[in-house]
Amino acid sequence: MTAIKDIMNTSPVIPVMVINKLEHAVPLANALVEGGLKVLEITLRTPVALEAIKKIKAEVPGAIVGAGTVINLETLNQVIEAGAEFIVSPGVTDTVIDAALASGVPILPGVITPSEVMNLLEKGITEMKFFPAEAAGGIPMVKSIGGPLPQVTFCPTGGVSPKNAAAYLALPNVACVGGSWMAPADLVDAEDWDEIKRLTVEAISIATGK
After folding, report:
1. Catalytic annotation on 38?
2. Domain span at 133
3. Of 6, 51, 68, 176, which one is least surrounded by beta carbons within 10 A?
């Protein structure tokens, strides 16, 4: 099982994917992976999300497929059964965190306060999602938490865009960011995989400055 730290260091941007039609899952994932983003978060916001995880794992070589919006034991068990390679949660509960740690599947739990960070540190977790990033104080907040808690590495998500991704990634306590701008709903609905691939390449360039 790959550690969450290694998964976070694989791609500067983790696409947050909302898949409404199962037939979009594989071509969308292919466009993102071919564009250079291998780590994919499939959110559990649609009825086909679990099947999408299975199909992408089976049919998209090189993809590291995770599940987002894991909020309770039911969804945790569902994504583990579907074969998710990592788990993302918008927040923190002891029930979900303890069960995820017991499962061995890497988890990226969401936090916005130092108290939540400290609670996770007590459980041995040092990699966390900062969500909702922009609404919770953005870059100044992430920087401020890094002062007293420098051992924590974040993946800011929520309001991250081409305008601020590079600034987030320039922080020493940020390994990657999460966002959906490279695969907007209108392009997915139009099945414009070439444009999504182009935006993916562009996202990497913006995020890394290369």
Report:
1. no
2. 4-196
3. 6
